[in-house]
Amino acid sequence: MPELPEVETIRHQLQQKIAGKTIKSVEVRYPKVVHGMSATEFARAIQNKKIKDIGRQGKLVLIRFDGNTLVVHLKMTGRLLFHNPPHPSLTLREGVKKFPPLRVRPASPAKRGEGGAGGVTKSTEVVFTFTNGTVLHYDDIRRFGYMKIVPTDEEAKFVQKEQLGIDFFDKAMIFENFRDLIRSRGGSQIKPLLMKQSLIAGIGNIYAQEACFEARVHPLRKANTLSDRELKELHNALRAIMQKAVKYHGSSVDAFVDAYGQPGKFVPHLKVYGREGEPCRRCKTQLVKKNIGGRGTVFCPKCQT
């Protein structure tokens, strides 16, 4: 599932590409993706509306209009894909019928996969077409994701209903608040606790493992056994790792691609996730994998205590 860095990558790219644009048409190809209203009502609610900006709360993308917000949860395999319009077809002048219409292929992508109309596939659930001809697809192979329109002034209420805690990139997530949140959960194991979205929104399996390794904290440690120094190391590690992951457009360990259809480039920088059996990059001890909180977790049995 895309985590904070992956969703932040998409938010930033969509802010650049669709903020300020007006939706010309909405085609809902899989009605069940829409929650809270019919597909027809959904399309009518945002057709001819101008997008003000793109926000994010944890793993949610928030596409804001004047008065309404389109909430998108990518879940496991959801993708928001931006496409430039195809190169206009070139035809011979009217009246000349000797030759068939001449067509020109879409121009080559300008940068990182951008450009080209992008074909609709079996996994395409919603197609948003803008007045300037650009297109945004929502694709989801496993069909777990959803879209829901909520009044913008009720965003906070919706987030609360979804039981989402403070976003880790929120300005309020200073060390003291992070420490107090972790300490409030007493004997909970630290790694599953970091992934608890109702406590802190955005951290998932990848970055919880990486932060525990960087801070030299064993993923099974109880929250109430961590010193201030260890919690400070963990807080710093989470921030540094996820900021770096955003810089590299996230980690593509499964189905994730960015808004231009390109995979993230952070995987080579992962030090423990997916590397069971390899030597620890600090002490050369073999990394081990255990099921912790229902999720596979890789760590160094020597470095992490």
Automatic annotation (TrEMBL):
<protein>
    <submittedName>
        <fullName>DNA-formamidopyrimidine glycosylase</fullName>
    </submittedName>
</protein>
<dbReference type="GO" id="GO:0034039">
    <property type="term" value="F:8-oxo-7,8-dihydroguanine DNA N-glycosylase activity"/>
</dbReference>
<dbReference type="GO" id="GO:0006284">
    <property type="term" value="P:base-excision repair"/>
</dbReference>
<dbReference type="InterPro" id="IPR015887">
    <property type="entry name" value="DNA_glyclase_Znf_dom_DNA_BS"/>
</dbReference>
<keyword id="KW-0326">Glycosidase</keyword>
<keyword id="KW-0511">Multifunctional enzyme</keyword>
<keyword id="KW-0378">Hydrolase</keyword>
<dbReference type="Pfam" id="PF06831">
    <property type="entry name" value="H2TH"/>
</dbReference>
<feature type="domain" description="Formamidopyrimidine-DNA glycosylase catalytic">
    <location>
        <begin position="2"/>
        <end position="145"/>
    </location>
</feature>
<dbReference type="GO" id="GO:0003684">
    <property type="term" value="F:damaged DNA binding"/>
</dbReference>
<dbReference type="GO" id="GO:0008270">
    <property type="term" value="F:zinc ion binding"/>
</dbReference>
<dbReference type="InterPro" id="IPR010979">
    <property type="entry name" value="Ribosomal_uS13-like_H2TH"/>
</dbReference>
<feature type="domain" description="FPG-type">
    <location>
        <begin position="271"/>
        <end position="305"/>
    </location>
</feature>
<comment type="similarity">
    <text>Belongs to the FPG family.</text>
</comment>
<dbReference type="InterPro" id="IPR015886">
    <property type="entry name" value="H2TH_FPG"/>
</dbReference>
<keyword id="KW-0456">Lyase</keyword>
<dbReference type="InterPro" id="IPR000214">
    <property type="entry name" value="Znf_DNA_glyclase/AP_lyase"/>
</dbReference>
<dbReference type="InterPro" id="IPR035937">
    <property type="entry name" value="FPG_N"/>
</dbReference>
<dbReference type="InterPro" id="IPR010663">
    <property type="entry name" value="Znf_FPG/IleRS"/>
</dbReference>
<dbReference type="InterPro" id="IPR020629">
    <property type="entry name" value="FPG_Glyclase"/>
</dbReference>
<keyword id="KW-0238">DNA-binding</keyword>
<dbReference type="Pfam" id="PF06827">
    <property type="entry name" value="zf-FPG_IleRS"/>
</dbReference>
<dbReference type="InterPro" id="IPR012319">
    <property type="entry name" value="FPG_cat"/>
</dbReference>
<keyword id="KW-0862">Zinc</keyword>
<dbReference type="Pfam" id="PF01149">
    <property type="entry name" value="Fapy_DNA_glyco"/>
</dbReference>
<comment type="subunit">
    <text>Monomer.</text>
</comment>
<keyword id="KW-0234">DNA repair</keyword>
<keyword id="KW-0479">Metal-binding</keyword>
<dbReference type="GO" id="GO:0140078">
    <property type="term" value="F:class I DNA-(apurinic or apyrimidinic site) endonuclease activity"/>
</dbReference>
<keyword id="KW-0863">Zinc-finger</keyword>
<keyword id="KW-0227">DNA damage</keyword>
